[in-house]
Structure prediction request, 509 residues.
Amino acid sequence: MHYRETRALVREAAREGILLWAENGQLRYRAQKGNIPDAFRSRLQSRKSDLIGELSLPDFRKRASAAKVIQYPPYSIDFWLENQGNPSLRHAVHFAIRLFGDVSLQQVLSALNRLTARYDVLRSRVNLQDGVLSFIVDPAQILSPTDVVDISERSFSDPERSAQVESLIQRGIYAPFGDKVHRELVIKVSDREYVIAIVVDHFVADAVSLDIIARGLTTALCDNPSSELVSDTAPLQYSDYLLGMNEWLMGEGPAYRLKYWRAKMAGAPPVHFPRTDETPILGTTNLDTVPVRVGAPLRARIADAAAAARVPVMAVFLAASFVALARTLRREDLVIIIVHSGRNHPALLQVVGLTVNCFPVRVTVRPGISYSELVRNVNDAYNLGNGYQIPWGLLMRSLGELDVSCVAPIFNYWPADPQPGRNRSSGSPDAGAVEICRIPVERPPDTNSVEWKSHVINVIDSAADLHVNVKYEPAKYQATAVHDFADAFIRSIEVIVQDPTRPVGVGAR
Prediction:
């Protein structure tokens, strides 16, 4: 199938002022002005099937009535089981903040209740109903399920009090959920100091959701206590997102994209570091981390190089990852799995719920190719994969049926968000001044509980500086290869910003 030609035809129609869309399995088109030329109409008809698949996208909209029970697609059970068996993953979506100033327990609880009323994820649970994994919303739950611990009357030294607060936060975030998917803890330290900890099951929420919740809580705490957070237009709910995805999965779009991925990934090899001689450990295993230092001056030069190549900064880091893999593994045909927010649609930007998706990028790092050409190839492959996303669980199952390996590195790039609520204060006469600051939460050791992961490349980019780390299983993969990869990664970045016309030189050390 000629996917690039189909996409080019869609773009050409837009330039000619012709509206194209798919509706109820049919191709629709209309000229905004005048008539559609017969020759162009014939071209559209000749690609009718492909165009229907290309234009069939999820429709995310607010429903007239809220759904109480929504069934997940069968492939979702895989990620749910992974969450069930890996607490460090399941409890990863969390934050804790400290409040100082003129604030009362009633104000804190009121702010949390307003958040619960606003987002259906915070009024839900996930479990099996008649053997089917289901998202269940409790419309009657209008009060937040908040645990309150008052230590203000206890006699502590300052170190003892700090240790007690830290211990309570740890328990509040990492204790088992039971049948709920989120939990809130409020610690009253004194009449002028409170600590709030919130955790949401990663199966139903992601980092973007966490930031939305944190901003909403900050707003609710700093507003007049009598104001209504829900007075604004209610955002699209997670239940709306699930319904939109379920409806789309029944149409032509996923099948069209699956054909693309089956052709694109045919014969793709597994991509992983050389294995150790140890016997593989079954179940969850700990991860080690290798940091890669990228200082502010180099980060600034990366931005200049990306601008000169007319690609996003992320494409430079992704290209460097491919070069580092090619050199470390002495191979040309490589696959990296991209973690994507899944929020391409504007309606999803304020959704509290898990929209994160993954898709593979397959690139050949040919001997003699220049760094600049490789960066462009990687950027093109990323854009095409991004446009043909389908749920990762569905893609994995489909590729597994073709004996195509999904073992590959995970590339996770995101701009570092400012810490929610940091140094935020309100000077309203009713609430007084409230200072809100983020509390770092110590997390348990990172673990890996799924076989398809090779290693994880995390790139946290604040635009001023950069934090890169490589996480891997030391019981499974050779540490020397991981360090070789990290060294090759930073050297590739340096070449891209200094001399992008230089050949990559696959296999060179």
In short: The domain at 3-55 is CATH 1.10.10 (Arc Repressor Mutant, subunit A). Residues 225-231, 418-431 have pLDDT under 50 and may be disordered. The chain has three domains: 3-55, 69-240, 251-407+451-498.
